[in-house]
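Re: weekly structure request thread

Next one in the queue (389 aa):
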Amino acid sequence: MSKIDDMLAELCPNGVEYRTLAEIAEIGTGSSNTQDQVEDGKYPFYVRSPEIKHSNTYEFDETSIVTAGDGEVGKVFHFVKGKYALHQRAYRVHITSDDVLPRYCYWFMVSQFRKYVEKRACSATVKSLRKPMFLDFPVAVPPLDVQHEVVRVLDSFTELETELETELEARKAQYAYYRDQLLSRENLEKIAGNEIYIRPISDIANVYDGTHQTPKYTTTGIKFVSVENITDLYASDKRISEDAFNKQYNNPPCKGDVLMTRIGSIGKCAVVETDEKLAYYVSLCLIKPNFNAILPRYLKYVLESSDGRRELRRYTILTAVPIKINLGDVGKVRIPVPPLFVQQRVVDILDHFDALTSSLSDGLPAEIEARHRQYEYYRDRLLVFPKKA
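Done, posted below.
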């Protein structure tokens, strides 16, 4: 901070000039739609969410700042270099002024644009943006040397955060590799010999789906879960009435059942750990295992393995938006079923390894969050400049 303060005192002692975005940039939207997405497309396709899609065609070849026109307004920003496609409700800001660094303007918008939009709209909730809101956005334009230093500092914070996130992903990948090796058919056959069978889920479990209608939520009652709650079923803050639950769920989840995502993100599982009543949405399917044939945690692990995901993908409707697997096809998915004592051995090993990996990784998300807060604090301090009189 002191270096930038010293530079400002020397280079612009009377304050920093502010210009509107219209004066320093070309602003516009794309013309692509969601259906232009191609899974293995050649070019990045920027839409209205943080996730970057792909397309086989591009509209622009440039350095730009891309942000959402609705949905995640003021929260999603991409710094883009090269060829890309752009959704018709996403905006591009292409810097045309020689005395403004595109990367500097990116950081300035990340820090200040949402505050500006909320103040202009007189609301903390802004659902959509129009071009005039971009055109009038005031950007501080200090000397290029100051801009370079701001970019250097903020990029270094980002690099530190990325290093921690990469380490966390490496831990997760290590666990996934070990799980996949343990659950491979070759390894299971070594343990179980000829006593391993490849069976469809319908042979060893009953499969149900949740309500197809968005329910009327209540402040008290039965917890309601969907795809977003799969990593922690009991953390859901949505509830439905006891009466609605009794009418809609003839086969409610019970302790030992498995809930699996089947729309959008397919194959993530959670074992129901208690007898607490749970209501669930159609995006999840409920698998009620025959405990004499398969253990719930073994079923979870095998479905989440690479072989399990590959088998699920055979029945996934890739042309659906979002992608999905029909309820009737879940029962067709074939998985290796060794004797229960082998399943228990696998579960014990993976539970232990999962606990060890989680323990090692627990500190990383906390450190990432701390670094992120630190970075936001310095970013916002760096990008507030005294206005030139």
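The chain has twelve helices and 19 strands. The chain has three domains: 1-16+143-194+339-389, 17-141, 197-337.
Next request, please.
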